[in-house]
Amino acid sequence: MSAAETSSRVAMGKRAVALTVTEVIDESPDARSLVFAVPDEHRDRFTYRPGQFLTLRIPSARTGSVARCYSMASSPHIDDALKVTVKRTVGGYGSNWLCDNAPVGVTIEALPPAGVFTPAGLDGDFLLWAAGSGITPVMSILKSVLAAGSGRVILCYANRDESSVIFAAELRELAARYAGRFTVLHWLESVQGLPTRAQLGGFAQLFSSYESFICGPEPFMAVVKAALIEAGVPRQRMHTEVFQSLTGDPFDEGTAAPAVEDTDGDDRGAAQAAIELDGELHQLRWPRTQNLVDTMLAAGIEVPYSCREGNCGSCAATVLEGEVERGNSAILDEQDIADGLFLACQARPSSDILRLEF
Fold first, then answer.
1. Cβ–Cβ < 8 Å for 324, 352
2. How far apart are CA 336 and CA 333, in angstroms?
3. What pLDDT, on the 0 to 100 scale, is given for residue 245?
4. Pick from 47, 180, 191, 358: most CB atoms within 10 A?
């Protein structure tokens, strides 16, 4: 095995960390929160931004384990511990296992926080949209804005019925504590039916200057986006969270990246990339036939990633100079791409010189 391959495997082996469940909170009849303790030596790696998620390794008798992504409902500005909230889904192995088999004291392997569903700043006005368990990353954002920001927050939260509302008591407490800044509007399908574009559009017009963050089932997000567009909200003020099922195993150390081929100094087949990651600048050759995650792993750089399939957004980075071929970028919306975002596990260089930032 080459030195580059060894470095790649070492980097991957250090990625997963065993977190201990310290508290289990029943949020609704079919949803519960897990609060995690992070080992002291890994605290820096588990700092996070509001709206990000954890990738958890869940045991499976059939396959050994499965990887699932769950958003954090905690806020890095007011909560001492990480908290993810899991809602049971019919036939969902991961969600049912966590709800049934994760008591206080159990340890669960996790990858460091990731995701791009997060505000650039906390001082603006926010119009937040959530349906069902889509409230989880939205909750992280709204608590952070209220605690560390200065603007107003309006939350429109849709559920089947009153018993399905996650964080009901916490939302009431926040609405009372921040009465001048925070308003929550509940939409119950059992009372009002499914929301329509016309209904939400009239509401959105009242707050068209606000920054919108949207999370929930795809039909809900489609209705909200259509309502916002109809209300004249610019696309750069619309942000959606899109999760797709992971089919690979991001915890598998056997999937290390191949080493970059030695070209005896001939760099015609590679771009020169300057990459800023965690405050450090890395200069490396990026072969046009390789994606950026594989290239960085082969160079011994611990790059953030989870699925390596373009389905989770963990490896999202920004092009500051130059151009890339994005490949599978379905989870990025039009505004993400306009802002220069790309998925490092899918992208390949299309210019000779690039400047990138994670």
1. no
2. 5
3. 64
4. 358
